[in-house]
Amino acid sequence: MEATKAVNYHRNGALVVSTSSALREWSQVSERRDLDVDMSDCMDRAPAVGLGLALARPEAKVLVLDCDSTIRTNLGGLATIGESSPENLVHFVFDDVSSVSTSGLPIREMDNLDLVQIAKSSGYAKTYEFDRLEEFLIGLEDVMRQTGPVFVRVKVFRDGIQLPFPERSMAEGWAEVKESLSPLEGAPAVKEIRNPLEENPAGKNPE
Amino acid sequence: MTTQEVILHPASVVAELKKNNISHVVWLPDSETNFMFQLLTNEPSLSLVPVCREGETMAVSAGLWVGGKRPIVLIQNTGIFESGDSIRGLGLDINQPLVMLVGYRGWSRHGLTKDSAARFIEHILHAWGISYYLIETDEDADRISLAIEEAERTSKPVAVLVGTEFGS
């Protein structure tokens, strides 16, 4: 949960696609549910949905909050993202050492998979690996500054308490996000979800 | 008795996509769909998004759609079988007006085919309650517009089965 809270702190109005256990946590901490695309179903497709959203909204940052148990069911999705190479996409994978999302069942082959190397060779522009929360909290600001696609593996420990999925259905949530993005067809509202670091790299006060 | 030439030219398909302001073609490059590649690449109003597996096309399309774009999916019928869960969860369940151009591998105008991909595809679409249109020639190409109109009116996926070899 602390890792998810850290992502929320650095969100800066980004669009967020989250799935599985990451969604359970994200829905508890997000302050912009109108910009959250929930994947409580078809959970392995979160990276592909994020890719589509990133291509549709190149002016916005798109964060994918993925899990080890979901990414392993569609590793080819990394190559799909690498081929289109969206600069505004950051793909987080929360690697759950406690295997809560599989009810404690270990996914043994995950120990043999080097997701960061797979992401690198699939064409991600930048990769990160964090094993400790403190490192993640310090490194996240740098992660969010990078030109994507960025891949971030974060080792997490969960305490065994399975949080609920959001009450709103996927259809309701997606409709809310779509409606929130509709005004962005016009110029004025686009600013709301732009990355302020990109708009004002020198950090100067626009006033 | 004359023999009717059954040919669909890629240009006819692309013209339909342009007419309907389609923004992206999400596809799995393969032997059934590569006929369109050159034409699509040269069309500035269309962006091509390649995937590694067909089930990703509906998901990429869903992201594009929620982001305000007008994508279309281009795969062959074997890919529909692979994509079942995505069509259910990211097409039907989220009310995505998803139009799928589907290469009808094994299609025969005589109704007899040894290819199970052809034998099962229409049954599968019926099972999901997904409407579909068949196109074989340039004259049929405007059914793509009908499919797009139906998908948007019903907020549901609609298929266009491409039952022909393509002309150059």
Question: How do the helices and strands line up, and which of them pair or pack?
Answer:
The complex is a heterodimer of chains A (207) and B (168).
Chain A: H1 2-9, E1 15-19, H2 20-29, E2 36-39, H3 46-56, E3 62-67, H4 68-71, H5 76-84, E4 89-96, H6 115-122, E5 126-130, H7 133-145, E6 150-156, H8 170-181, H9 196-199
Helix pairs in contact in A: 1-7, 5-6
Chain B: H1 10-19, E1 24-27, H2 37-41, E2 47-50, H3 55-66, E3 71-76, H4 77-82, H5 84-92, E4 99-103, H6 116-128, E5 131-135, H7 143-154, E6 158-162
Parallel strand pairs in B: 1-2, 1-3, 3-4, 4-6, 5-6
Helix pairs in contact in B: 3-5
* Shape call of chain A: globular
* Count of separate DSSP helical elements of chain B: 7
> What is the CATH class designation of chain A?
Alpha Beta
The gyration radius over C-alpha positions of chain B equals 15 Å
Q: Total domains of chain A, how many? A: 1
Percent helix of chain A, as a range, is 25-40%
Explain what the structure shows.
The complex is a heterodimer of chains A (207) and B (168). By secondary structure, chain A is an alpha/beta fold. Chain A has helices at residues 2-9, 20-29, 46-56, 68-71, 76-84, 115-122, 133-145, 170-181, 196-199; strands spanning 15-19, 36-39, 62-67, 89-96, 126-130, 150-156. Chain A has a 6-stranded parallel β-sheet with strand order 2-1-3-4-6-5, sandwiched between helices. Mean pLDDT of chain A is 86; it is low at 186-207. With 168 residues, chain B is α/β, with parallel strands linked by helices. In chain B, 40% of the residues lie in helices and 17% in strands. Chain B has helices at 10-19, 37-41, 55-66, 77-82, 84-92, 116-128, 143-154; strands at 24-27, 47-50, 71-76, 99-103, 131-135, 158-162. Chain B has a 6-stranded parallel β-sheet, with helices on both faces. In chain B, helix 2 (37-41) links the parallel strand 1 and strand 2 (47-50). The mean pLDDT of chain B is 91.
